[in-house]
Amino acid sequence: MASIQTSILPKGYTRPDPSKASIAGPSTRRLLPVGPAFISHLRLTLKHQHSFEAHDAHAEKQRQKLEEFQNSFANGDDDLGVGEEPETEELLALDPKEWKKHDYYAVLGLSHLRYKATPDQIKIARKHHPDKKVTTTAPQSTSSLLAGVNLNTNDDAFFKCIAKAHEVLTNSEKRRQYDSVDHELMEFQEEDPNPNSFSKSKKELSDHEFFETFTPVFEREARFSKKTPVPTLGDIHASKEHVEGFYDFWYNFDSWRSFEWLDKEINEGSDNRDDKRYTEKKNKSERARRKKEDIARLRLLVDLTLSLDPRIKRIKQQEKEAREAKKAAKSAPPSGAATPLKSKAQEEEEKKKQEEVENAAKSDAKKAKAAAANAAKKARRAARAAEEGSVA
C-alpha cells in the first residue's frame, strides 16, 4: 500500500478562525430551453422524429452532396468566374425580416461582379447553400450520440436570405429596381465630385487628375442609359466631334433608373383601403421626387465636368484661330498673293491718315464752295451796278 507524503507544519502555524458565514437556503430558478444542445434536440425531434438512424442517413446524404460539389471543382468544371468569397459574421447574422436592407450580391458571393453578373452566374452562385455548409463551416457536436449534428443556429435564417436574393436577382424587373439603389452605388454617389468643393478651394485639376476623377463616375452612370452605346469621356487627345458628342449625349441622358425599391411597405393584414391608397400615393410622390433629384444631380455633375474639362479650352483656341484665318483669307488680294498681316498699330495709323485726308478734302471742298459763293455774289453786285449806270 502506497503511503501519502505530507509536509511538516511550521512552528509558527496557527489554525485559522472558523468562518461565520451561513449557507443560503434553497431557491427556485426557471431554466430556459436554449443553447446548442436544445437546438439540436429540436432538430432531431422535428426533422427526424428523434430517430438517430434517420439523422445519420440525412447526414450521409449531405456528405455525399458536398463531396459531389467539391469533385465538380476538382474536375475543372467552369464556375463562370463566380469564384469564392469569404462569409463575414455580419453576413451570416442577417435578419430575413430586414430583406430590403440586404446586399444581395454579397449574400450570393457576387460582390466582385454586382450589376455585371450574368443570369447564369447568379444561378451558379450556390456556395452558401446549407447543403454545402453542414460539414464545413458549421460547428459539430462533441457528443457521440449527436455526431454530425449542425449546431449553427442561423442556418435557416441565412438560407431564407439566400432564397430571397435568388428571387430578386433572377427576376429582371426586381433586379432593375434593386440595381437602381444598390448599396455600393449609393456609397459611391455620396463621394462623387461636388461643385462646392472646387469652388471653395479654387482647385484646378491636371489633365491626369481630371480623367482619373470623372471617368469612373460616368462609367457607373452609363448602366442606366436607355440608349446604347453610351459614349465614354475619352482622353486628352479626343477630337472635337467626340467631346461635343459626349456632352450632347449626357445633357440629353435618358435614364431607366427607378426608385420603387425604396417604397414604404403596406401593413400586412390591413383591411383599411384608405390606408393603402394613402401609402400608394405617398410612395408615388416619393418616387417622383427622388427621380427629379437624380436628374438634377446628374445635370449638375455634367455641368461640373464641362467646366473643368481641359479639352474645352483647347477647342475654343482652335476655333478662334480658325476664325482669324478665315478673316485673313477674306482680306487677301484677289490675285491670291499672300500678304503679311498688319499689326494693330499699323492699321490704326493708316486709318488715322485716311481720316486726315478725308477731312482735308472736306475742308478744301468747303473753302471752294465758299469762294464760289463769294464770286457769285460779287458778280451779282457788278451786274446790278451796270444796270443802274445804264439807266442813269
Automatic annotation (TrEMBL):
PROSITE patterns: DNAJ_1, DNAJ_2. GO terms for molecular function: Hsp70 protein binding; ribosome binding. InterPro entries: DnaJ_domain (IPR001623), DnaJ_domain_CS (IPR018253), J_dom_sf (IPR036869), ZUO1-like_ZHD (IPR054076), Zuotin/DnaJC2 (IPR044634), Zuotin_N (IPR058871). It holds the Pfam family ZUO1-like_ZHD. It comes from the Eukaryota. Residues 317-327, 344-367 have a biased composition (Basic and acidic residues). Residues 1-29, 269-290, 317-392 are annotated as: Disordered. SUPFAM superfamilies: Chaperone J-domain (SSF46565). GO terms for biological process: 'de novo' cotranslational protein folding; regulation of translational fidelity. One of its GO terms (cellular component) is cytosol. Residues 103-182 form the J domain. This is J domain-containing protein. It comes from Collybiopsis confluens.
